């Protein structure tokens, strides 16, 4: 199981993104695994892709994520637990990243596909980039 971050979805969708070529290189490794993400990541990725490439492209990304990933939703308990990560890293990690980490912890997932180097600060997490 691998967690997919917004930066990975954005780089895969936007050809001009600095990481687009790298996504294509590591995509075979990622696609053969079960994938998990969050509604927060979905929101961030679809919004960014939509603003850069238009609503139709954002819609295609939305459908791809929904069809090919287990999308976790957040509730009050998850938000509260994610806040522990946020406070532990003193705001260096975004709240969205903190939600991702809490979901990874709960699901015993130790690998994330992301171009966000902030995840390198977290012990026990392997970042594919």
UniProtKB/TrEMBL annotation:
What Pfam families does UniProt report for this protein, alphabetically?
Answer: PIN
One annotated GO molecular function is: RNA endonuclease activity
Q: Which residues form the PIN domain?
A: 2-123
Domain of life, per lineage: Archaea
Q: Which GO terms describe its biological process?
A: rRNA catabolic process
Protein's UniProt name: Nucleic acid-binding protein
